[in-house]
Amino acid sequence: MANKKVIYYIQTLLSRWLSYPVIPEGKTTGHALVRSERNGCSLGANIRIEDPYVLHNVTLGDYSYISRNSLVANTTIGKFCSVGPNLVCGQGLHPTAGVSTHPMFYSPNNPNDRVLASRPLFEEHRPVSIGHDVYIGANVFILDGVTIGHGAVVGAGAVVTKDVPPYAVVAGVPAKVVKYRFDADTVRALLERRWWDDPEEELHKVSDHFWDVEAFLANK
């Protein structure tokens, strides 16, 4: 037992130094990234991104965080979003109506050495839009081109293949609407209120009326 603790302690130190993932004994993840990588990104204020991660062409709004082991590309994430570990988002599409699904036949940017397409025959990458105040659970996959509305919740393990309405709670494979966080009138009022755009000195109102949405909406 002592040796296992020492080994895990060493792995943790190496993880912090080299940005390698450390997975506790008996635990698994959907994928394991080797090290952190980021390019073409725009990051807001007071954000957090946990190592390891791979982010390409990602915009992350103020106060949002992305948990460890997330692989995200061509995605806009709003303010006050909570993203659980192992998110896979915006990693490209493959055609299914052609002779083959392999990119060497339809993409000049085929990851393999052999390319037979002189021009793109298919739109591989479509931007993903995630609104403000969105909560995404662990081990979620989001397909290219999807829009997730403000205030939505995506349950752990969901595969999101189509747009998610504002303040909807979705879960499953493929993800479907389970319920809405609030009734239609409250959802409409919250969307009009746009509290996520308030100046920082006004954000305390969210905490002051946290469990009373009506009081929060009334206190402008």
Describe the fold and architecture.
The chain is an alpha/beta fold. Helices cover about 15% and strands about 25% of the residues. It has 3 domains: about 30-90 and about 125-180, UDP N-Acetylglucosamine Acyltransferase, domain 1 (3 Solenoid), CATH 2.160.10.10; about 95-120, no CATH class; about 185-220, no CATH class. Strands 1, 2, 4, 6, 8, 9, 11, 12 and 14 form a 9-stranded parallel β-sheet that branches. A 7-stranded mixed β-sheet has the order 3-5-7-10-13-15-16, with no helix packed on it.
Tags for this entry?
7-stranded mixed β-sheet, single chain
State the gist of this model.
Helix content is 17%, strand content 23%. The N and C termini lie far apart (57 Å). The protein is an alpha/beta fold.
Write the layout of secondary structure elements.
Layout: H1 2-18, E1 37-39, E2 42-43, E3 48-49, E4 53-60, E5 65-66, E6 70-77, E7 82-83, E8 88-89, E9 128-130, E10 135-136, E11 141-142, E12 147-148, E13 153-154, E14 159-160, E15 168-171, E16 176-180, H2 184-193, H3 204-208, H4 213-218
Parallel strand pairs: 1-4, 2-4, 3-5, 4-6, 5-7, 6-8, 6-9, 7-10, 8-11, 9-12, 10-13, 11-14, 13-15
Antiparallel strand pairs: 15-16
Helix content: 10-25%
Q: The CATH topology of the largest domain, please?
A: UDP N-Acetylglucosamine Acyltransferase, domain 1
The top-level CATH class of the largest domain is Mainly Beta
CATH level 4 superfamily of the largest domain: Hexapeptide repeat proteins
**C-alpha Rg (nearest Å):** 20 Å
Write down the secondary-structure element order: HEEEEEEEEEEEEEEEEHHH
Distance from first to last alpha carbon: 57 Å
Low-confidence stretches: 6-29
Q: Please tell me what the overall shape is.
A: elongated
Give the tally of structural domains: 3
User: How many strands, which pairing sense, and closed or not: the largest β-sheet?
Assistant: 9 strands, parallel
Mean pLDDT: 86
Q: What oligomeric arrangement do these chains adopt?
A: single chain
Structural class call reads alpha/beta
The count of DSSP E runs of length 2 or more, i.e. the number of strands, is: 16
How much of the sequence is in beta strands?
A: 15-25%
Architecture of the largest domain in CATH? 3 Solenoid
Number of helices: 4
